[in-house]
Design brief:
This protein has 571 residues and is an alpha/beta fold. The protein is 30% helix and 23% strand.
């Protein structure tokens, strides 16, 4: 058992943490009380997450405070106060309404991290519609699967990205409008709108936003979150991110994924913090410049990014004045002890690991400012969340035993449904537990340790990719008969996507073809979900019922024992 602690030295805290005593708060925490104390409600128990994120600050000193600093790819900058974000999102909401968007219609956003993405998201929630986000690396197939399954009525995008949608538009009968935000006409339509809006009074359970995420089998599933999810997001932004009014906060995630929604829009702004959004790509030097220029104090990023920074060395860090930093966090994949130790050397601060999922809607397990960091562990459950390690029947396993990481049902940001797949939704629960699909164990002090996925889901650079999607894309290629896809461990990216491909007879297994297939998936499915490694193979291992046994491909790849093959067809 690894008992390697980072003990926070005297003088570590520049500010008293919002959660000064984890154990006491955890013991006494009540969602009912938090609902009253931390959120703003309309009459009759109605709520709106967007109102809580932005508009409620307008009656306070935060009205003229900067909500959003934006920096673009080419050093363009913009900034918006809470009041400006409020009325811009009102205008967006009014515009959507004028196009006929009603409550619970699905409105999808397919944009890079530019300000209209944020105004759109808030505007959609304000009129009671359901916001969906699409990562800008998505290509035709990924877009089609999501827009079709959700029957999206409106898509908000830009000129460049809209071209990918044009090719599939004829197959999307529900898609009534495509809004192009960089056309002059769009700005004219927005300025015409009233800056006031009647914010939709929602039931806490009403759907607010949805995100497609991958499992082992089948197409991505639409995880739907309700308006009350903001309560979990708000509480964790307060306790785990430890956001204070004096902070300038930078979350490097994209709202195409849940982190960007929960901690770049809802939970972070509901705490009234000033946030930076950078729309450019990763570049170590640029990132340090941003940390310095905006005097970032709280920084939420991902292990792959930390490893990429690490690869560029400490000297580059030291060329910048990063003395504003006070709290560093990461999410998405295991945070290696070396990354924490490097953080300590480079920034004088440890990265705090946090664990959660699209389905959990908010940070569920974390390392807290007020606690020493047990290096390598994900930390302890967030107040109001009960985590456990359980067996297949839903019985709790003892300390030290590996099993399924599960959370007791019922925290506010637990996914509300899987879009049009109620049976699938129910399959996530055993007795009173939500089963995460991750394997983990708990130590004697109550810290959780990540072991791996219980299924074939791939995490590459922190992004979740379903092997089935990649396999389906590969078999679209005329040379391919079938394909099996796995995550292969990788120093930098955590995992890379590796595909085992069976070619049609007569097709030559050349390196050029490997390249062509990679590119094919990139162009067809998504820029981040293509196989970086391809191996041609004569036959895939399958069960007698014909299911590809990726576990065996993986064991072979890693030189591990193959395990139980009783269901395996001859291989
Ligand atoms: C999966 C969820 C919600 C954050 C973004 C990812 C893996 C997440 C950790 C961590 C080890 C982690 C898990 C989880 N994961 N955080 N701290 N240590 N693994 O959300 O795309 O829904 O992925 O990411 O495997 O199940 P997501």
């Amino acid at each position: 058992m690894n008992e390697d602690f980072f003990h926070k030295p005297k003088g570590y805290f520049k500010q008293t943490p919002n959660l000064p005593d984890y154990e006491t708060t955890y013991k006494n925490f009540s969602w009912e009380k938090a609902k009253e104390d931390e959120l703003t409600w309309f009459e009759d128990g109605k709520i709106n997450a967007a109102y809580n994120a932005i508009d409620r600050h307008l009656t306070t000193f935060r009205k003229n405070k900067i909500a959003l600093y934006w920096e673009g790819d080419n050093n363009e900058t913009e900034k918006y106060t809470f009041e400006e974000v409020s009325y811009l999102s009102n205008q967006y909401g009014n515009y959507f309404k004028s196009l006929g968007v009603d409550r619970s219609d699905r409105v999808f956003i397919f944009l890079p991290r530019i300000p209209p993405l944020y105004f759109s998201f808030l505007g959609i929630l304000k009129i009671g519609a359901i916001a969906g986000t699409l990562f800008s690396a998505f290509q035709e197939q990924a877009l089609f699967d999501r827009l079709e399954n959700s029957s999206a009525k409106v898509l908000i995008t830009n000129t460049e990205l809209s071209q990918r949608v044009e090719k599939i538009r004829h197959k999307l009968p529900h898609l009534k409008h495509i809004i192009i935000v960089d056309e002059p006409e769009f700005s004219q339509n927005i300025t015409k709108q009233s800056k006031d809006i009647h914010i939709a009074r929602m039931d806490p359970d009403d759907y607010a936003f949805m995100l497609y995420t991958s499992g082992t089998t089948g197409k991505p599933k639409g995880v739907v979150h309700r308006h009350l999810a903001i309560l979990s997001e708000h509480m964790t932004a307060k306790y785990v991110l430890d956001l204070h009014d004096e902070d300038t906060y930078w979350c490097t995630a994209d709202p195409g994924w849940v982190t960007g929604i929960a901690y770049e829009i809802l939970g972070s702004w509901s705490n009234g913090v000033t946030s930076l959004v950078f729309s450019g790509r990763f570049a170590a030097e640029k990132w340090y410049q941003l940390l310095q220029k905006y005097k970032i104090s709280v920084w939420y990023t991902a292990p792959t990014a930390v490893r990429m920074l690490m690869a560029q060395g400490e000297t580059l860090v030291k060329k910048h004045d990063l003395s504003s930093l006070r709290h560093l966090l990461s999410v998405g994949e295991p945070l290696n002890p070396e990354a924490i130790r490097w953080g300590l050397k480079a920034f004088g601060l440890p990265f705090h690991d946090t664990w959660w999922q699209t389905e959990t809607g908010a940070i569920s397990i974390a390392n807290y400012p007020c606690m020493d960091v047990k290096i390598g562990s994900m930390g302890k459950p967030t107040p109001g969340v009960e985590a456990a390690i359980i067996d297949e029947e839903g019985n709790e396993l003892p300390v030290g035993k590996e099993g399924n990481l599960a959370l007791r049902k019922g925290w506010p940001s637990m996914m509300k449904t899987i879009w049009h797949r109620h049976v699938k939704y129910d399959s996530y629960f055993v007795k009173e537990w939500y089963i995460s699909g991750d394997r983990a164990w708990k130590d004697k002090d109550g810290y959780f340790w990540f072991v791996g996925r219980a299924d074939d889901v791939i995490k590459t650079s922190g992004e979740r990719v379903g092997p089935f999607e990649v396999e389906s894309a590969l078999v679209e290629h005329p040379s391919v008969v079938e394909a099996g896809v796995i995550g292969k461990p990788d120093q930098l990216r955590g995992e890379i996507i590796k595909a085992f491909v069976v070619l049609k007879s007569g097709v030559k297994p050349t390196d050029e073809l490997k390249e062509e297939l990679s590119l094919f998936v990139k162009k067809h499915l998504a820029g981040h979900a293509y196989p970086r490694e391809i191996e041609f193979i004569d036959k895939l291992p399958k069960t007698r019922s014909g299911k590809i046994m990726r576990r065996i491909l993986k064991a072979k790849e890693l030189g591990l024992p193959i395990g139980d093959t009783s269901t395996l067809e001859e291989f």
